[in-house]
Write the structure tokens for this entry.
Amino acid sequence: MEVPEKAKRKLQSMVVEVDAVELAVRLIERGCHMKRPIGLSGTAAWAQFEQSAASGEVPEYILRDFEAMAHIAIAYFGECINSLKKSN
């Protein structure tokens, strides 16, 4: 049985609220062991990572890959919600 449309829309709106920059920062923190200073927002941390890439400390492709991974993950979350079926 399908999940009611109202419930599906509510779940979809939650996915829209996923911050792609914050997700990318968390992924790169784990994947590359690049830690942001405590209390720094995802946006500010990403700006620092961009500066590191601009100065040659971090390869540019690393940032672009993790940025793409965040967007792919968010799209996947949406696909999962769209395919939800109500269990019996």
The radius of gyration is 17 Å.
